[in-house]
Amino acid sequence: MSKKQTAPRGFTLIELLVVIAIIAILAAILFPVFAQAREQARKTACLSNLNQMGKSVIMYVQDYDEVFPMVYGSYPGVSRAAEYLLVYPYIKNVDVWRCPSAGPGDGAGWPDSTADALGVPRANGRRVNYGYNWGVLIYAGGGLLEAEAYTPSGQSYQAGKPLAALVAPADVFVYGDSYDTYRPTMGTDWILDSYRGAARNSSLRHGGRFNVAFADGHAKNMMWIGFTLGSDYFAVPALESDRAKWCADPNGILNLSRYGLPNQPCGTVLTNANIAALGGVWWPN
């Protein structure tokens, strides 16, 4: 006698739906992990960029009488020149000025006239996403630059400080993640100039962990936080003690009259008490 033939059994609708639900759950779990892994890779590439930029400035300083590069200097046919264009010969790669995690609207390019005069490639759509340490409030000096001054023709500039003016080079910023435009600076009053995200720390670049290069040649990742003052956005290191790292000399007195603030030591400008007294509102995480 022959055995009875049975048709192969397929999936029931319930079983298929269960499989789909399991796949959806796994995707919901894994996709954020993949996104975090990609951001970690971008953050590492960004840190490498800043490491190269920091070292390029150190090489520049050694070749120019141990003086840091100035900004807005006088050049034939050029109204302004930012320091990263001056240190280009020590990098030979303008792509390191771009953070892989930056949005398409972050930062700005550099003028063709400046590039042509200094022998630097034209921007051609490239943007700069890192800021130089002009100081905690940029025109007051205090960082790697002197306070704003003017040429006899009325052009503004800020001269570079000598290396010897830095009390502790390992604790002085040179470059950091920034949303400033063509300038660009990491000074707290302009560091979020092109930022258009939410007023949340997690919305800042690298989830609020900015990469920073220091004057002794090392670079590291640091937690930063934002605050709102009036209608303007600002960002500072999360640890109050790290906010003196803008300062060549934390005890050096800054003339802050143009900001409507009393003259005070550089290292005390951004204390929590001062920010609160000005009406600053800290961002949530």
The portion of residues assigned to helices is 25-40%
Major beta sheet, specifics? Answer: 6 strands, antiparallel
Q: Whole-number average pLDDT? A: 90
Strand proportion: 5-15%
Identify low-pLDDT runs.
Answer: none
The multimeric state of the shown protein is single chain
Q: Which structural class fits the helix and strand makeup?
A: alpha+beta
> What's the tally of helices?
5
Backbone CA Rg: 25 Å
**Tertiary shape:** globular
Q: What number of structural domains do the residues give?
A: 1
Q: Give the H and E element order.
A: HHHEEEEHEEEEEHE
Distance between the termini: 76 Å
Kindly state the number of beta strands.
10
Short synopsis of the structure:
This protein is 25% helix and 14% strand. The chain has 285 residues and is an alpha+beta fold. A hairpin with a 2-residue loop joins strand 6 and strand 7.
Topology of this protein?
Blueprint lengths: L12 H51 L19 H4 L25 H7 L11 E3 L16 E2 L5 E2 L15 E5 L27 H4 E6 L4 E11 L2 E6 L15 E2 L9 E2 L6 H6 L3 E2 L3
Antiparallel strand pairs: 1-4, 2-3, 4-5, 5-6, 6-7, 6-10, 8-9
Summary tags:
single chain; 285 residues; alpha+beta; six-stranded antiparallel β-sheet; two-stranded antiparallel ribbon; 10 strands
Task: Tell me what the structure shows.
- This protein has 285 residues and is of the alpha+beta class.
- The protein has one domain (18-282).
- It has five helices and ten strands, in the order H-H-H-E-E-E-E-H-E-E-E-E-E-H-E.
- It has helices at residues 13-63, 83-86, 112-118, 205-208, 272-277, and strands at 130-132, 149-150, 156-157, 173-177, 209-214, 219-229, 232-237, 253-254, 264-265, 281-282.
- Strands 1, 4, 5, 6, 7 and 10 form a six-stranded antiparallel sheet that branches.
- The longest helix has 51 residues, at 13-63.
- The chain starts with 12 loop residues before the first helix and ends with a strand.
